[in-house]
Write a structure and sequence with these properties.
The complex is a heterodimer of chains A (449) and B (336). Chain A is α/β, with parallel strands linked by helices and 449 residues long. Chain A is 32% helix and 16% strand. Chain A folds into three domains: 98-279, Rossmann fold (3-Layer(aba) Sandwich); 308-370, no CATH class; 373-448, Herpes Virus-1, CATH 3.30.40.10. In chain A, a hairpin with a 2-residue loop joins strand 2 and strand 3. Chain A is globular. The radius of gyration of chain B is 22 Å and the shape is globular. Chain B has a six-stranded mixed β-sheet with strand order 3-2-1-4-5-6, sandwiched between helices. Chain B is built from eleven helices and eleven strands. With 336 residues, chain B is of the alpha/beta class. Chain B has two domains: 5-141 and 150-235, von Willebrand factor, type A domain (Rossmann fold, 3-Layer(aba) Sandwich), CATH 3.40.50; 247-297, no CATH class. The chains are: A alpha/beta (449), B alpha/beta (336). At the A-B interface, strand 7, strand 8, helix 12, helix 13 and helix 14 of A face strand 3, helix 4, helix 6, helix 7 and strand 7 of B. Strand 7 of chain A pairs antiparallel with strand 10 (259-263) of chain B, so a sheet runs across the interface.
């Protein structure tokens, strides 16, 4: 396939992403102009997938029907509104579970069978999978800095190790960077691939999580033995299997996920595929209830207290000395806090005293999962406030006093006034800062924590 | 190279520490008063906006228990009495100087005696400046992607007060968001001991951390190291950090630890073996506790100081850790 075509197709996909929610409204109402936005809003969250057409039955998207001009004939307001809603929706996800597995080990099983050449997802299932897998890996490492990813391909009836367990995102990305080496052929074998993934995780300590994520496009699996035995082994090893199917639901895939406490989903179209995959990025919450249905398999992984050292980093200008890991003369490095040995890179285990050395930023990157910022409440009226603040507490952007004439009315956590209030410090923030604080900073500027 | 840049300055205005800084003592042979600090700072700010016409500036003040925006070049304050035309001064300088001094005076006067006890709100000012940078980069990206790249935003923290271990997590969160926004954080420690958290901030975002040896030469340090934007700084030899301390604060007593005990579920750090994780309420097996108690590093327990292993520790660590422990109030249940 010529590369030009791929790029072109890719562009049209990204358009589709933005308006996907509103398309659903437009579809179900025919040419319901204007009302489309209301409609799209109601189908938000989980329900939206149901309303969307399958990728193969979509003819073309009428994205122009979903935007509405304002009084002055400008589209800017409508577009801003769409973007704000899309961002806001992500925020409303529940942030309750506090117990999460943070040291994660993941094997990504990529289906490289001939079924992946289907074009029901544009440009092909295979290209889309590679593209999303790259984005997935980048985002996954961002949120799970202490995690490791290995990649196994399923092709021509065997499991093929594409890359070993690695904690370095660049290394993992490199293993799937060469498309021509991954060209799909033959039948996939779930059993072989799962066995291979299981074997590569067998040496891991008990307190780290073991996960397998399967991206599966085929409707068959070609196994040498009984796949239920492999499943039983996974349950025993507490391996959590999640499957994102691209074609249809298969009984065995559903069973793999249900028995091991993973998630199963069938992608309806490109956007939904990405949603399903990216839902697997945040560390899985461990259920604190020991009596839960999955308690044995996924609920209570044995926890342990680990001894960790926080090293001192030597600068480039320090006098060179030998490192303990490669015996090379280097000036930069990290000093083990217990024995003072110099290692090249962290996180690692000290070669001399065996202490686990991590830099505290590595740990700290995960903390926002544990201490989420409280959701800000939308301010809908200024009546019972004596003197409302004139500008956003964070970015000092002045608030609009006249309620915006939004097409989509209030509710759903949107504020007419563009004001969102922190329940703790009672300061008002603008919509943009609200999203930024909860998505990126994870720290309320008013409370300072 | 010749691009406009945005600078957010976070000024630590803790009255207690400025008083200490301005009094002459044994450790502090070259006192620097707040007044002379501000006049040098204003010169620096003026030179930033004078460097290029499009340069933007925001100034945030850190006060005990609150953080305030002192000046922003976006919100031109009209009807300012200081605004009267003056043939001798460049108008933007005058607006800047007047606004900064006036707002500082206002906010310092508003401080009540009870406020003085509170710790300074560095995190608030840092997150505000990030939100502000997010705001200006987001709006300019709507116009053109090229402009965002040219903004080259950075934050300069002028700190006088010591680290508060309770703000460890929020500070780290701000650092990571700065990384995401590609914001450089520069730190200038004007007075007081080295700040572990701010060292990490500068290191992780590619900024420079400077601990002033001669506080009275502040302006020279500021103009030589912090005035050039990061792009140009690669060509100059800006002072680098000789050592970065990657120690973290424990969750139980907010002490800064070298070797910690970490919960495998939530990565909470403790300074001593605990039977139950205070964050995620995970129970740890008795066996590990016993093993870890045996292997426990001597720093955390002065009672066992007689054990021979203590001599193997670098003495500076013990002293430093002891100093930090001593200066921090030990809260029994410090987590939130």
């Amino acid at each position: 396939m010529p590369p030009r075509r791929i790029e072109h197709e890719g562009d049209s996909d990204s358009d589709l992403d933005i308006f996907e929610d509103f398309d659903s409204g437009a579809k179900s109402k025919g040419k319901g102009k204007g009302k489309a936005i209301d409609r799209g809003k109601k189908d938000k969250g989980k329900g939206k997938a149901k309303e969307q057409p399958y990728a193969w039955e979509a003819s073309y998207t009428r994205s122009w029907d979903t935007v509405q001009e304002d009084e002055a004939g400008s589209l800017q307001g409508a577009v801003e509104d769409l973007i704000a809603r899309g961002r806001r929706r992500r925020l409303l996800a529940p942030a309750a579970a506090i117990r999460r597995t943070i040291i994660r080990h993941l094997v990504l099983l990529l289906d490289l069978s001939s079924a992946m050449m289907d074009r029901d997802m544009r440009p092909t299932r295979f290209d889309l999978m590679l593209q999303y897998a790259r984005e997935f890996i980048t985002e996954w490492f961002d949120q799970n800095p202490l995690g490791q990813i290995g990649i196994v391909g399923m092709r021509a009836g065997i499991g093929e190790r594409l890359g070993g367990m690695s904690g370095n995102p660049q290394e993992v990305l490199k293993t799937i960077s060469e498309r021509h080496k991954l060209e799909p052929t033959g039948e996939p074998s779930l059993q072989n691939a799962i066995e291979m993934a299981r074997a590569s995780m067998s040496h891991l300590p008990t307190h780290s999580s073991r996960e397998i994520i399967v991206i599966f496009g085929s409707l068959t699996t070609c196994d040498p033995g009984n796949i239920h035995e492999a499943l039983a082994e996974c349950v025993k090893d507490r391996i959590r299997i999640s499957v994102v199917a691209l074609a249809a639901e298969m009984k065995i895939c559903r069973e793999l996920c249900d028995k091991t406490g993973g998630q199963f989903g069938v992608a309806l179209n490109e956007g939904h595929f990405k949603d399903l995959l990216f839902e697997l990025i945040p560390p899985p919450a461990q259920r604190a209830l020991p009596s839960g249905p999955n308690a044995r398999s996924a609920g209570t992984a044995p926890a342990d207290l680990m001894l960790m050292g926080f090293p001192t980093r030597l600068p480039d200008t320090s006098p060179p000395s030998l490192c303990v890991c490669h015996s090379q003369l280097k000036s930069e490095g990290f000093l083990c806090p217990r024995c003072g040995a110099k290692v090249c890179d962290v996180p690692t285990d000290c070669d001399i005293c065996g202490l686990m050395i991590v830099s505290s930023p590595h740990l700290a990157r995960s903390y926002h999962h544990l201490f989420p910022v409280k959701t800000y409440q939308a301010v809908t009226t200024l009546d019972n406030m004596p003197n409302p603040s004139k500008m956003c507490h964070a970015c000092a952007r002045p608030f609009k006093y006249a309620p915006q004439s939004m097409a989509g009315a209030s509710g759903e956590g949107m504020s007419h006034l563009g004001r969102y209030r922190c329940p703790d410090c009672q300061n008002d923030f603008c919509g943009e800062c609200d999203v930024f604080v909860h998505d990126v900073v994870h720290c309320c500027p008013g409370c300072g924590r | 190279m010749d691009r406009s840049s945005h600078l957010s300055v976070v000024v630590d205005l803790s009255p207690t520490h400025w008083y200490l800084s301005s009094t002459r003592s044994q450790q502090n042979s070259r006192p620097l008063s707040l007044k002379s600090f501000l006049s040098q700072l204003l010169v620096f700010l003026n030179s930033h906006i004078a460097c290029k016409d499009e340069n933007t500036l925001a100034v945030f003040g850190v006060l005990p228990g609150r953080s305030v925006m002192l000046f922003s070049s976006l919100s031109e304050i009209s009807g300012n009495p200081l605004d009267a035309a003056d043939a001798d001064t460049y108008r933007p300088f005058k607006v800047l100087d007047g606004t900064v001094m006036r707002t500082i005076a206002e906010h310092v006067e508003n401080l009540g005696p009870s406020d003085l006890e509170k710790p300074v709100e560095l995190v608030g000012a840092l997150t505000k400046s990030l939100c502000y940078i997010n705001r200006i980069t987001a709006t300019s990206s709507a116009q053109s992607a090229e402009q965002t790249a040219s903004l080259d935003p950075r934050i300069l923290i002028l700190s006088v007060s010591p680290d508060q271990s309770s703000s460890y997590i929020p500070i780290m969160n701000s650092i990571f968001s700065a990384q995401k926004l590609r914001v450089t954080i520069d730190v200038c420690k004007v007075y007081g001991s080295e700040s572990v958290f701010l060292q990490q901030a500068a290191h992780l975002t590619g900024g420079s951390y400077l601990h002033l040896e001669r506080a009275d030469a502040l302006l020279q340090y500021l103009t030589m190291s912090f005035l050039p934007p990061p792009g140009i700084r690669q060509l100059l030899s800006v002072p680098t950090q000789d050592k970065v301390d990657f120690r973290a604060a424990c969750f139980c007593h907010k002490r800064i630890v070298d070797i910690g005990f970490v919960c495998s579920v939530c990565l909470s750090i403790f300074c001593q073996p605990v039977p139950v994780c205070s964050t995620c309420r995970t129970k740890f097996p008795i066996k590990t506790l016993q093993r870890l108690n045996a292997a426990r590093p001597p720093i955390t327990i002065p009672a066992v100081a007689a054990s021979p292993s203590v001599t193997s520790l670098p003495s500076s660590h013990t002293i430093r850790a002891g100093h930090i422990n001593g200066s921090q109030p030990v809260a029994p249940n410090g987590l939130r």
